[in-house]
Hints:
The strands form six sheets. This protein has an eight-stranded mixed β-sheet with strand order 12-11-13-10-14-18-9-19, sandwiched between helices. Strands 3-2-6-7-1-8 form a six-stranded parallel β-sheet, sandwiched between helices. Strands 21-24-25-26-27 form a five-stranded mixed β-sheet. A hairpin with a 4-residue loop joins strand 24 (1062-1065) and strand 25. By secondary structure, it is of the alpha/beta class. The protein has 47 helices and 27 strands. Helix 2 crosses helix 3 (56-75) and helix 11 (203-229) packs across helix 36. It is globular, with a radius of gyration of 31 Å. The model is unreliable at 500-519, 895-937 and 944-963 (pLDDT under 50).
Amino acid sequence: MNNWTDEQKTILDASGNVLVYASAGSGKTSVMVKKIADDVINGIPVEDILVLSYTNASAADMRFKIVNALYESVKDASDKDADTIRKQLDSLPFTEIGTMDSFLGRLIKENFEFLGISPDASQMDEGEASEMKARAMSAVLKNEYAAARDDFLRVASHSSNIADDAPLSQTVYDIYEAISINPRPDEFKKLLLDSVTDNPDSLYGKVILDYYRELAEESLPFARRIKDEVNLSEAPRYAKSLDGAIDALEKISKISSVKEAETVVGLISDPGLTGHGKNKLSDEDKKLVKLVRDRAYAEVAKGLANGLFVDYDGYNVKDAREFMNVVLRLTEEFADEYGRLKLSENKLDFNDLSRYAVKLLSDEKRAESVGKKFSLVFVDEYQDINPLQEEILQRISRGNLFMVGDVKQSIYAFRNADSKIFTDKKSLFEQDESDGQALPMTRNFRSDRELLRFFDRVFSAVMSTARGGCDYKKESLFLKDDFSDDFGGKAAFMVCENVRTDEERETKGVYSVKNHVSALSGEEKNGYAEGLAIAAKIKELIGSRYVKKDGSPLLYSDIAILFKKRKSGAEGLLKALENAGIPFISDGFSESAGKKFVKELTCLMKAVDNVYDDVAFTGYLLSYFGKMNETDLQTLISDAPRGYVYDAVKIKSEEHSVLGEKCLNAVNFLNEARNRASNLNAEGFLKEVIGITGFDAYAMAGGNGADDYRAVRDFADAAADVGDGGVAEFIAYLKNKPDERSKNVPDGGGNAVRVMTVHASKGLQFPVVFAARCDAVARNSEASSDIVFDRALGAGVKLFNEETRTKMPSLAYTAITLDKKRRASDENIRLFYVALTRAENRIYLTGTVKGDLNGKTDFPTPIIASSSFADLMFYAAASDDALKRTVTPCEPVRVELSADTPVVLFGTGDENIVKSIKKVTEFSYPFSKSSSVGRKYTVTEINREQDEFTADVFTPSLWPEDDNRKKGIAYHTVMENVDYSFTTVSEIDEMILSLEQKGILTPDEAAAVDARDILGCISHPVMREGVKGKYVREKSFMLTLSATEVGGDPSDDVLVQGTPDVVFFGKENVICDFKYSGLPDDKLAQKYKNQLKLYKLAVEKAYNVKIDRLLLYSFKSGRFVEVSP
């Protein structure tokens, strides 16, 4: 780049501490390279420059570009200057250009004696570190349980699952991680203890108040617009309801203190839609009014009241302090044990690099010595720095930091990146230039002008200092003098209709025969429909000379499809591309067919090669070959926490117990496999093991049928690549082999669409970009947890009432949950920015809409609560008519995959597949009684096979009668989401409205549910008694059972899979299943007796308890029906 902009020239001339806040496509790497080259030419030796980049690839690219820049400068230099530059080029290989990790690793190795560590210590990868942490945690918990201290036992009983201590362990891991990257850990520990409060005037009360106030603020403009645009003159009840909702939002948006909030909330009441008189209003406008009403009362006002003003009577807040003290003690014990293991095994983990570096640089003389080595320190991607790395930079720099970054592209919070460091530094420099200069670089050299207009309008609507960390309209517009609404047809939001079927919804959470046959879940079917729309658009564009700036034909390799997350209907979308003949390459992107089975084979080979590879050996034990489950593994690790897993298995194999027998079988099988491997090459070994064990038939029975089988076959064939090499050679080969899925790609051809995540696309650009599955929402793994944690706010717990055996979120728990939601929204905005700005010439957003499309653009989800790209695009479209015009509904696509013709899914004409099918269907099994017993069952299938009443009908686990199916679907959806503590019909009505608003229920389904029926169920003495103890809802299981338990031979095993609606553990252990059926009670019990008995068997095995009662609740009769166990 020869023609530097004014912004770039200012940056190149700057000295001292400099922070460049750049935008996408602005040439920040080019400017940094130019700056480094100029400094070298002006006399600073390259060895005196430190350049830190985020990845090894970017560091290598930086080094290459610096070499080229210096070579170019030689051409225009005098002979004397040219000689100087050539000498600097000769020294360039010794220049510190790399990642922060590589720099810190070298620093630590040079000072190992001072730090008291071995010079030979090796850094663990993520898998090794996780395994070692698990061993350390197991030892800590084992010691605590042995000590049986009262405080620990109370905390463990309140915060752990019935089956394990995973929630408590995860909290310890999170706190340990936070302390590891915190330069002031003692302050952080104090914060954790301060998080125990029930005072709404605390920091936590402010967080809650701010969240709901801002939620109201972002809802108000659209609510007012609905009032202005909807004619309510002939609908007085709706007019009154809308006015009341707007008044509530206005009052809450102006609240400035907790005391004021208490007054305002007390005055707000929902007028409802009751009353007399005519109400002439279209269904569409009724829905809009209901959306505003639901937002104002059920979400904002009620959320604020329930979050801030909690009646803690019966809930001991002191218990929360005890919890924090115990957790901190566990964290210290874990840190000691983990540190001991690392020391004894001569290992370091990722955070050790920063931690040891801070320890080293805390010595002033050593910090000064390191700092003197570098005249200039350049840091790329500064927005992704973490607190400990920032501390290191401050200790080695001497007013010579040149930092480049873009807070709008800070998307690595999950790697501990803290974008606030960037924004705080920028604010500091803007307030006092003596500390440094904050300089902008916003001109985009990548994208067409029409796209830049589109980007500017979208992010002006959704990104601000409070939302995403950047005042986009003030400081980051690409086109400051052009806010035109002419996008030239180069940008569109292609919205597909939701195609999820009733059959899939009715068996939610339960293994379904229909889903098994179709091999596409509801989400995958939506992805498939979306994929067909993308394929059609690609075919329309391909070959065109009117897309790229240079006028050359558009190739498949010019196109990228980006996903926010991997598991978001990607398989369905890729299947659609494949069927449409679109060539694509996916670099280890999707959970592709066969991956599970290939992983099991890989673990077996690694265990054969080295039984002391704990990660691989553990995978082997949990595989088809090892036949163990996670409970078995936890027992083994608990019994021998400090040794190798293999040694624990060997010891246990000598015991006369069920687990001892499993261990003996696992050891014997592995020994046999090792003998085979010693006499065969890798290909021969794999094919022999697969054939002898029936592994190919096992793969064929997987969810993807023939695709799984082909993956296993291809994996075995790939072993031929190492010729006569054995298992060890094939393992080494796999390490260097890229994990890549490609379809329809010609041999040797790179002309294929690239499929990747948004994270993987950062730093790349493509003429055409599809941001796919924009409606995808990351599942919140903490949604049902009793513990939440945050590095800035500490930890929050649910308080426990000993008398009622119920739990309630503490003030800190609510505040942290809401703040996590807010920060997830910020990250979502920045990911959206990265996704869109990869495009040079065309950008297409695609997604699936649930519910009314007009509702999305008339009353959108507020930015603070947004969780998907679609939420942001709909908000922007609702704010800007020009953007609203880019929302384009796709033609509906009906995805039909018949359950009656499963052979289609296995393909045709493949002799090996036919043989494998015959192997499954014609093999003469030694145990004749089990020859008709499948390898994998759902309880529904077994119930059908053992009950003549349902022998010829596919029966979902709920509401079997066709005439009641739609109501049954709606009732079960409500039961999945209802809070068992609800005591009024109005609470349930509000929840049903919320489910309708979110698209979980259709309007018809919401209308079909009578809240009185739901209340009747959850108010029944059985339910009220059950919730006093521990209980699990919709908990899926898959267990290995003797075939006798499904009518087979005692020498055989089968897999059984299912999901009870709710299991109560207390004075009586009870399984309850909810049914919407017109059958009399006795026939209902007869119909589902086998299903309930298998639930009983599975739960007893999974939780090691005795089930006392089996109950069915009939919504038709309003009674619980006893089923004899």
